[in-house]
């Protein structure tokens, strides 16, 4: 599945994970190891070839030391607060 075919929220999450990993200056291999998945699987998450489950997103956020909300669109954060 290509990023263009993803639901908008899934594409947003994939881009946000990649962006945060780069900000943290972590390699794809390091993040994959910390999350407990293969390099190939983490690459698929970041490129939108695989959807990221809620549990996996939680582990990614924890490995990056970031709140899970950082990976969600703003409107989702507002909806969660309501």
Describe the structure.
The chain has 82 residues and is an all-alpha fold. The chain has a single domain, classed as lambda repressor-like DNA-binding domains (434 Repressor (Amino-terminal Domain)). Helix content is 63%, strand content 0%. Helix 2 packs across helix 3. The C terminus is likely disordered.
Could you write a compact summary of the structure shown?
This protein has 82 residues and is mainly alpha-helical. The chain has 5 helices and no strands. The protein is globular.
SSE layout:
Blueprint lengths: L7 H16 L4 H8 L3 H9 L6 H11 L9 H8 L1
Helix pairs in contact: 2-3
Descriptive terms for the model:
63% helix, 5 helices, 0% strand, 434 Repressor (Amino-terminal Domain)
First-last Cα distance? 32 Å
Mean pLDDT across all amino acids: 87
**Number of distinct helices:** 5
Biggest pleated sheet: none
Shape category: globular
- SSE string, helix = H, strand = E? HHHHH
CATH architectural label: Orthogonal Bundle
Low-pLDDT runs: 77-82
Class by helix and strand content?
Answer: mainly alpha
- Percent helix, as a range, is 55-70%
CATH topology assignment: 434 Repressor (Amino-terminal Domain)
- Tell me the number of structural domains: 1
* Cα gyration radius (Å): 12 Å
């Amino acid at each position: 599945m290509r990023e263009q075919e993803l639901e908008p929220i899934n594409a947003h999450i994939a881009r946000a994970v990649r962006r945060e990993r780069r900000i943290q200056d972590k390699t794809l291999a390091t993040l994959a190891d910390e999350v407990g998945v293969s390099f190939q699987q983490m690459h698929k998450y970041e490129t939108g070839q695989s959807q990221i489950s809620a549990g996996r997103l939680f582990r990614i956020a924890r490995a990056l030391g970031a709140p899970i909300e950082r990976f969600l669109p703003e409107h989702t954060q507002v909806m969660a607060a309501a």
